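FYI - complex with dTDP-4-keto-6-deoxyglucose, inputs then prediction.
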Amino acid sequence: MSISDCKILDLPKITDPRGDLTFIEGGNHIPFQIRRVYYLYNVPVDSERGGHAHHELEQVIFALSGSFRITVDDGRECREYWLRAPRTGLYISRMVWREMDAFSQGAVCMVLASQPYDEADYIRDYCEFQETLCR
Ligand code: T46
C-alpha cells in the first residue's frame, strides 16, 4: 500500500433552489462495504487527531462542515489534503499513517469505515508502523 492508493472521491450533488443534496450508495460510490460510520465534532481548532495507521481498515473521510487538513504517509512519502467540501471525500487505504489538524471552527468530520471498531487494528506508534511496513 502507498499514498498513491489514497484518492479524492467526489459524490454526486443535486442542486435546486432549496439547496444541495448529496447521497452515498453502498456498493456504488464507496470502494468497500460500509460497516461503520462515525463523526468528529466540537473539535477545538488547535486539535490534532489521527496519528496512527490501520492494518486492514479502509476509510473515506469527509468534511461535512468547515475544513481540516489530513496528511497521509506511507513511510516513504507524505501528501497533504485539505477537505473543505461536503461532497468530497478522501479514501485512505490500509497501512497508511494519517494525521489531522487545522480544524476550522465548527468543523464536522464524517468517516465511512470498512470494519467495525477494533483497537487491535490500530498501529499508534510510528516506529512500529515503519517496522510493520518492512516485514
Ligand atoms: C481515524 C481517524 C480519522 C471507538 O470506541 N469507536 C470508534 O468507532 C472510534 C473511531 C473510536 N473509538 C474510541 C477509541 C478511542 O478511545 O474513541 C476514542 C478516540 O479515538 P481516536 O483517538 O482513535 O480518534 P481519532 O480522531 O484520532 O481517530 C479516528 C479513528 O479512530 C481513526 O480510525 O482514521 O479518526
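The CA atoms of residues 49 and 100 lie 5 Å apart. The chain has one helix and twelve strands.
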